[in-house]
Amino acid sequence: MSFAMLEFQVNGAPKTRTLFLAVDNPNSLPVERLQNIPHVNVAFERDKTGSAVARAFIELLPQVKRLKPKAQVWNQQLLDYGQQFQQQHHQPDDDLTQIKLFL
Question: What is the three-state SS of the chain?
């Protein structure tokens, strides 16, 4: 779910119909519903377990593309993005150069 939130924050609402699923096990994957979808992305942590699960998904659905976080885990990447966004868009009060009042 961190990936979905990050995707929304960075790119806005998807332009095409998009489904985000949280699946913890390849056996829970609705393969029959996904086999005719041309673009299926999976987002797992950047570790051995994430790699193994991604491989299992690719075996079930050959069109799967694995997305990896820049950080070790997607949740950390989401937190890092939020922190960077705040730093880039925050001006301390003493840096004010203009005030507009509308009464």
Answer: CHHHHHHHHHHCCCCCCCCCCCCCCHHHCCHHHHCCCCCEEEECCCCHHHHHHHHHHHHHCCCEEEECCCCCCHHHHHHHHHHHHHHHHCCCHHHCCCCCCCC
pLDDT at residue 89 in the model: 75
Which tokens belong to 69? 């976080």
pTM exceeds 0.90, yes or no: no
- What are the φ and ψ backbone dihedral angles of 42, each rounded to 5 degrees? -120, 140
Tens digits of per-residue pLDDT, 36-81?
999 898 888 999 999 999 999 999 999 999 989 898 888 888 888 8
CB atoms within 10 A of CB 6: 20
